[in-house]
Amino acid sequence: MRKALGIVSLMVALGTAAIAPATAQETGVVKSDILVLDPDKLFAETLLGQRINREYLAEREKLIARNRKIEAELEAEELALTEQRAQKTPEEFRDLADAFDEKVQEIRRDSERAVRDLERSRDRAPVTFMRIVEPVLIQLMRETDGAVILDVRSVLLRADVVDITPLAIRRVDAEIGEGTEPGSETAPQE
To answer: Which residues lie across from 36 on neighbouring strands?
Structure first.
């Protein structure tokens, strides 16, 4: 009889454990009011962050290639202009040289503007990224009973069990993946 009660008690305990709600311990993070996250690592190691970085690098390479092409065209145009010098009067040549110089200055302004725009988009990328992953981080806070997530760079000492970065990377990859279509970083894919 005792043996039967022991088996029944064990079965009840196992059954109860099987239907118990998930706890923070099961996520690998201790229940804590204070959690820490490494946003740089989250950006660098998630599919979404990697896609955003790839897009930036591709745009940068396109800009570099465009500038090299324009530079070669301008060098060829300058050489052709120099060769025309003997056939032109000083006034005609000066007009052509001034027009060429104005063209070069306009191209330089356009190029500098494109570089600034690209760098601005790179600087905004982490903010855009964090907006997209925020729902995942909020869910992790709820699961771990967290009240605040601190940037790991501002924490002097901590126990690793409050670092949700590895879990956040897995969750962002699972729930968001690469995110939106390339070039549109406003909302995750459905």
So the answer is: 150, 163
Residues in the chain: 190
CB atoms within 10 A of CB 188: 17
- Give domain status of residue 146, yes or no: yes
DSSP symbol at 149: E
* pLDDT single digits (tens) 124-170: 999 999 999 999 999 999 999 999 999 999 999 888 889 999 999 99
Whether 43 and 126 have beta carbons less than 8 Å apart is answered as yes
Does residue 16 fall inside a structural domain? no
Domain count, the chain: 1
The reported pLDDT for the residue numbered 116 is: 96
Amino acid at 116: R
Residue 54 sits in which domain range? 25-175
Say what the pLDDT of residue 101 is: 94
List, in order, residues 6 or more apart from 48 with CB less than 8 Å away: 129, 132, 133, 172, 173, 176, 177, 178, 179, 188
Q: Could you tell me the pTM of the whole model?
A: 0.72
Nearest residue to 167 via CA among 121, 136, 124? 136
Q: Is there a domain that residue 2 lies in?
A: no
Q: Which helix (H) or strand (E) holds 36?
A: strand 34-37
Residue 75, helix vs strand vs coil: helix
